[in-house]
Design a protein that fits this description.
The structure is a homodimer. The first copy, chain A, has about 325 residues and is α/β, with parallel strands linked by helices. Helices cover about 45% and strands about 15% of the residues of chain A. Chain A is built from 12 helices and 12 strands. In chain A, the strands form 2 sheets. In chain A, strands 2-1-3-4-5-11 form a 6-stranded parallel beta sheet, with helices on both faces. A 6-stranded mixed beta sheet of chain A has the order 7-6-8-9-10-12, with helices on both faces. Chain A is elongated and about 85 Å long. Chain A binds a DNA duplex (30 and 30 nucleotides) through helix 2 and helix 4.
DNA sequence: TAAGGTGATGTAATCGATTTCATGGAGGAC
DNA sequence: GTCCTCCATGAAATCGATTACATCACCTTA
């Protein structure tokens, strides 16, 4: 491939001049600039970003480590990140941790090795030594969706407490009393926060929180299905099941359907996380919608603040309850 | 950050020796090796991939340009690509073309600038000058999902012809005669191929292909909805609509639901592309499933063949018809 | 006209790794 | 004991850009 040296020779100038043209330096005459541009296109010159990054110590690249690329929530998050990063002239490298701490660490290592200018992480586990170390090196870092308590890292997350309270109130109004929550893992902030909010809402509504109605899954389809099976096998099964994310909801629907049960007559269903297809399910699923893409965009802005050395303030955006028909009154 | 020079000083050796340790060069004594490793962890040394790439002219990075990151088909494709690339020790940079040729070209430029070792493209348009140029520079390149005719580039795609014939036969057996196809854009190979296969299948089954039942969308939700509206407004609307991809199906379902029509009594529905939630729709959607993740994995293998200078042979994997209940006999 | 300033351009150092070639010492063969 | 070989290691060039500093021509101003 053509190098800057070739362009310089072709245009009859020095490499410094070509570099100046490349970087829009003001002190280049229009004629020289034109000659250089002509040479660049004649040689199909594409500047070597690797060499440039080595010299400038900046890659104009951000790393994003998501929990699970097959989860539409993370996909939409990634979309928001992409959009905002593009707008600011950055490229995003996405790493899929597949909800495993080792994979997450693998990508942390790779992305640090690639010298990304900043890192956006949806942490997969409580905290790994590598992440700990990352924090102490003061590298620009922002947690997204999930946080790790005790670490001084800015974060962007959705706050679902109010929406969960609204959901519990709705369920109560619809006559449901025995409500179960199939949450995410307690090792994740989102798993804990949603459980806490659920317990608080139930207590606030004067409903009993039964330990056997509180289960922790892993935010994936399989655990949603397994938990649903266990709940439905109870001698006194719940009247309603609230799932901690969209994939667990999908698994729950699978199990309910496999048993030939009807929603909401046999069991009501609600989901934390809204996805496009919920309106087409029979019946349409009541869900708590997060401002997903906006979370991604805000996270990028925060991260670029850190990259620029500005202070960054954490953000929590409210989630909203979307009532459909999967929690209606029994027999309604 | 610590540099190789720092590690060398700390371990009391030269940078060459540290580099040898880094690259598992055999001629380093175990004692030296240990000293170097100790120095590396003491200094929390992470090799600078940027510098390494500049010197070795290899980034161990692949670029993947997909059509639309919000389309679960591409997400799953990306997952397959990721997995296989990881296995071979490569990192993947994903670019989202958002189905726009300019965005695609933007990512081609960026990724070539980053000097990725190979490029996987799901081309968004017939052919752009930039892609044309890319082909002529003999850079390792593989087309994925979609191809561009006339270019000598290996590709990996799904072959849906047989499944489409099966679908048409199924529809005919169920008593449907007036069948419409809401395809993707004619500028994309997948749009054309599916249309051709549909027309061939209809003709083969002795059914009439009415021009007003053949519409081209853009593989996104909105066009699926718009086409459905237009078809249903016809004085003689189709009895069945076959959608060219999962997002268009989603849009079609939206429109059908908004009109209060029932599936399959008022109109039958089928989708090219199967997605997890189709089983939960009322009624479950009959679809043609592509071996999506496998397409991604095969594409990476092909691309790595090219990177290694080996010949690469294009692949077409068969798609399969999955019959559910959205095309059942009218009134059944 | 001479001094000084300004603006365009070039020379060369630099970023952090890899790799070629040189070097010196240990060990084996005679 | 001498010579040769081989192996571990080091010195220095290199990849392709950016940029500090030097240089030179030309213009302004006194």
């Amino acid at each position: 491939m053509a190098r800057i040296k070739d362009v310089a020779a072709h245009a009859g100038v020095s490499v410094a001049t070509v570099s100046r043209v490349l970087n829009d330096h003001p002190s280049v005459t229009p004629e020289t600039r034109d000659r250089v541009y002509a040479a660049m296109s004649a040689l199909r010159y594409v500047p070597n970003a690797v060499a440039r990054s080595l010299r400038t110590e900046a890659t104009r690249t951000l790393g994003l480590i998501i929990g699970d690329i097959l989860n539409p929530f993370f996909t939409e998050l990634a979309r928001g990140v992409e959009d905002e990063a593009r707008r600011a002239g950055y490229t995003v490298i996405i790493g899929n941790a597949d909800e495993r701490a080792e994979e997450q660490d693998h990508y942390v290592r790779t992305l640090v090795g690639q010298r990304v200018d900043g890192l956006l992480i949806c942490p997969t586990a409580e905290v790994t030594p590598l992440v700990q170390e990352l924090v102490s090196t003061a590298r620009p870092l922002v947690f997204l969706d999930r946080t790790i308590s005790g670490l001084d890292v800015p974060f962007v997350r959705a706050d679902g407490a109010r929406a969960i309270a609204g959901l519990v109130a709705h369920l109560k109004e619809m006559g449901h009393r025995r409500i179960a929550f199939a949450s995410g893992p307690a090792t994740l902030s989102t798993g804990r926060e949603r459980t806490d909010a659920f317990v608080a809402a139930m207590t606030g509504a004067g409903l009993e929180v039964r330990p056997d109605y509180l289960a922790a899954g892993d935010f994936r389809e399989g655990s949603g299905r397994a938990i649903t099976a266990r709940l439905l096998d109870l001698t006194e099964p719940p009247e309603a099941i609230f799932f901690g994310d969209n994939l667990m909801t999908l698994g729950g629907l699978d199990e309910i359907r496999a048993r030939g049960l009807r929603i909401p007559d046999d069991v009501a269903v609600a989901s934390f996380d809204d996805v496009t297809w919920f309106v087409h399910v029979d019946p349409p699923i009541t869900a708590i919608a997060q401002p997903t893409a906006e979370l991604g965009r805000r996270a990028v802005r925060l991260l670029l603040d850190r990259v620029a050395g500005r202070p960054a303030e954490s953000v929590a955006l409210p989630a909203e309850l979307v009532i459909r028909r999967s929690c209606e009154r029994k027999g309604a």
